[in-house]
Request: fold
Amino acid sequence: MYEYDPLEIETKWQEFWLRNKTFQTPEDTEAPKYYVLDMFPYPSGSGLHVGHPEGYTATDIIARYKRMKGFNVLHPIGWDAFGLPAEQYAIRTGTHPRETTEKNIVRFREQLQMLGFSYDWDREVNTTDPDYYKWTQWIFLKLYEKGLAYQDEVAVNWCPELGTVLANEEVIDGKSEVGGFPVVRKPMRQWMLRITEYAEQLLDDLENLEWPESTKEMQRNWIGRSIGADIDFQVADHDEKINVFTTRPDTIFGATYMVLAPEHHLVEQLTTEEQRETVAEYKEKAALKSDLERQELSKDKTGVFTGAYAINPANNKEIPIWVADYVLVHYGTGAIMAVPGEDERDWEFAEKYDLPIIRTVEPPEDFEGKAYTGLGQTINSDFLNGLETEEAKLKIINWLEKNGVGKKSINYKLRDWLFSRQRYWGEPFPVIHVDGEPKPVLESELPVELPEIDDFQPTESGEPPLARAKDWVVTKDPETGKTALRETNTMPQWAGSCWYYLRYISPQFDEGPVEKSGEEYWMPVDLYVGGSEHSVLHLLYARFWHKVLYDCGVVSTKEPFKKLVHQGMILGEMEYTAYRKNGQYLRPSDAGGMDDVEKVKLTEKDIEKRQEKFVLKGTDIEVDAKAYKMSKSRGNVINPDQVVDQFGADSLRLYEMFMGPLEQVKPWSTKGVEGVYRFLNRVWRLIIDEESGEIQKNVEETEPDKEQLKVLHEAIRKVTEDIENMRFNTAISALMIFVNEANQWEKLPVSVLNTFVLLLSPFAPHLAEEMWSRLGNSESLVYEPWPEFNEEYLKEETVMYPVQINGKVRGEVHVPSDKAKAKDYVLAQARKEKNVQRYLDGTTVVKEIFVPGRIINIVVK
RNA sequence: GCCCGGGUGGCGGAAUUGGUAGACGCGCCGGAUUCAAAAUCCGGUGGUAGCGAUACCGUGCCGGUUCGAGUCCGGCCCCGGGUACCA
Reply:
């Protein structure tokens, strides 16, 4: 027997491609280029997950398709290899992170090659390679030169468990994103990057990107631009002024008090003698609160009076100044004018502390809430009375500017990027400290390599692990000869991934991060595919660095990634669960909070659907039906190696693309893999006789007939269109339809099969290569021209029209194609149809709708 | 709370500018092959009624626009993701 043996043919072609460097990126710049990029993986110890091949298969299909369309394709892969897990493993076992990382990379590379991806393996990058991070450090020096990198004593998110600080984005609900450990606030000296400098550009340039709207929106929200005014409030009996930011300057007449954040620099000076103790106590309490506590307590507002008063510049009234932690020191100016009538938070606070409330916007008649935050007519506001909100804003800003007490202003939520970590396994900063002052390392001294150490824990004094390498830390300033200390913080994992897409263009280039002409040819990335979990972090940071590099003249485009697509998560197989306690079944909705609930795992055979719910077969017992995120603890992780072992890489690729739209979250189904495996078997048997292992007898060098051309060209049309639009599931369905049809043909023209094999090749490249060579072609099909479809072959001899009476289909008529557009003829034929006549009998025709090539609708009374 | 997505058979999902809802695959049912099974092949498969032609119902719910709505508009419900005192 000569059955379809995926393992044999896949190994054969993978070796062929590697040996012949089939996917080596072309050096010429004649042809149009296409740069298709995957988000490179962190090579974890657990190996490839079925989620990885999803995006990678999608980009691989595009890469293979574009090559056949005559593009020069850049399709690289690499390793985002710095990171916590290898370091934590090192702390536990003493194994150097480099060793762990190298081992994991070998495994990942093997797994990716086993799936037949058409990467150019000569362009692999590795962020932990000194030849790579040399340029990460180089870019840091550029940031430093431009004043975009600075040190600051900041209250940081310190995670004692991990022994490091975390960026705000890495803290979720007061816990570390990695590991879920508690995070506390702690003032520390840190490196910061001035991403806020680029807030405006990062926001504006989103507009022209072909990115998912939701991702753009997330970045917009993250940057958080708001337009309003800065206003000065003179403090009564003081020289000081309090500057506030507000988006509602039109409500200034309703500002009945002010609030400073506990950390505001004027709190000390303004507090009166009587209030000193109360305020000091309050400040202390606020400082001790962790992020988590702040969020939990956010419902109940607290604050204390400073004893001081400010003067509202609009009406010269004295209003009290309070301190409260519902005002955040790092947003706006850290102080607000409180307008309880128009702001829910201020209303809540005013109610609690019995402060006056004045409405300055007329709420709608049916308005029932407390603070009215909407727009409307201005009231109780002297010269603004009667104006609509937008007009009032303009007028008051004008007035403020004229009187020198305020001006129009734009504020961003975005904060500077906390860029240092107290870790070993990251890029060392190219910085030395001389006499306590930071000094950049000379470019010629790069890379600053990681020193060898044997204990990866932070030191007893709480310094980063690098401080253990004393010989490395203590150095000399080459310029002055003075003793200098190296920076012992390292860069966060995001650093290496901020520019890796540039390194692929010229991975060996040693005069800069990227070679100029290559950059000009290949950039921007035409298609970037990766998870939506990187919507803000990686994608915002990378855009920021890119813009800095643009300003430095290193890159020629303002944006790195032209088109972005997120693949949806693959969930575990569907699970059916019934809940039982003390022998009694429970409703899933009740079982949630209870103890000692027994979960009964069921299979599809045990259940049936009743109305909206699943129940235990033959009973009323409700059953939970849900697909869960794959996780080790749940035991529902699907291992790609096993799928490949059982069905082959082509089946895995094909199944992951056939599951549904790429962007969508979808559950795994082993039965579904079997389905596409059966399809590939049918392809095999269509061409190969399993008895003899030879080409089927009915495969001949004949001219295809009309029907065959029609079926083939329909497949070409559909597959081409669907690949262009990344609708891989329906493209595969079109291939299946072709095979179903072809299976019924008596004779199979070789030319038709050749074309079909080309259509199949981006999806199932191994089987396609095998069929291609067995059909008598000598070269690999990778650079064969993509089939063109011919409209002529798609024409039908007759056209079918559904016939509706009053919008309901009552029959259909077939008319010759040449008469298909003749309204009168087609309608006449329609009226002759038996069932249609039945409905026309005894009625009057009111209207006849004729949509050429589509439908007929006869409206009767 | 706010901002984005999304609700279509038993399941994953198809459906051009509004034009026959359910392509393709899974599952299920029936048949062929087989000593039997697996594999394979053929046929059927939204629900209800009917031997059948056919009819009625059907794309989360309620209403609207239209000759015609899964698709457009208004109001809700549910699920998923993001975000949260951002002045």
In short: The radius of gyration of chain A is 34 Å.
